[in-house]
Amino acid sequence: MSQPADLPPSAQHVYQALDESSPLTLQSICEQTDLAESTTRYALGHLSQADLLVSRPDPADARRRLYALETS
User: Fold this and answer.
1) 31: domain CATH number?
2) Which of 2, 14, 36, 47 is the most exposed place for a label (fewest CB within 10 A)?
């Protein structure tokens, strides 16, 4: 999947991480991208606004969310 060029660099980085391996938790995304949690949340917000992101509760821990790229 090609990443959208009009996203901020942090969102492109998160997009690439999710394209390579998903679904991921916020913590997993932070670890894979070496981005701070606040920057990762900012990037996820941009991906969500662009309708490129889906999230759902983590079945292992309902307090966490799993993030993946929209496939449709």
Assistant:
1) 1.10.10.10
2) 2
Q: Report the C-alpha gap between 51 and 30 in whole angstroms.
A: 21
Query: Is the distance from CB of 58 to CB of 65 less than 8 angstroms?
Result: yes
Q: What is the pTM (predicted TM-score) of this model?
A: 0.89
Instruction: Tell me which residue range forms the domain holding 31.
Output: 9-69
C-alpha dihedral over 27, 22, 1, 36, to 10 degrees?
Answer: 0
* Angle (CA) 22 53 31, round 5°: 45
In a domain, 1, yes or no: no
Q: DSSP state, 3?
A: P
Number of structural domains in the chain? 1
